[in-house]
Design goal:
Largest sheet: none
Order of helices and strands: HHHHHH
CATH class: Mainly Alpha
Structural class: mainly alpha
Number of domains: 1
Number of helices: 6
Radius of gyration: 16 Å
Number of strands: 0
CATH architecture: Orthogonal Bundle
Oligomer: single chain
Strand content: under 5%
Length: 136
Amino acid sequence: MYRHFPRRSDLVAAVMANEIDACADAAVTLAATAEPGVALMTWVEKYIELVATKRGFAAALNSGDPGLHDIGPYVRERLEPALQTLLDSARKAGDIHSETTATELIVAIALLCHPVPDEDTAFNRSLIRVFLQGLR
């Protein structure tokens, strides 16, 4: 294992890249199989799962470890185009009316997934639902 991942951060980066790829690839599948609004909201749920279940990931990204330096840009490179395609399709179908960009949505949801003192993840999900209702 250490031949492929000499540092722990290399392994963390590889696992995260794999999960980011799966999330981005889901956008293509959803766009081909679901109505635009449903595809968008289903993808957002997948992204929420990615962010919410990786709460320690943000701390690792901000740790200054050089092995994790490229993950932040990789998130943008992979997820933003995938999400923008879903947003454009949902807009064209009339399912959303907001001019929110993929960048804004990705960052807003990530921020809304931050732990809130004395609350569980259900609270975060309710905040995200309120935010997403504003897109419609």
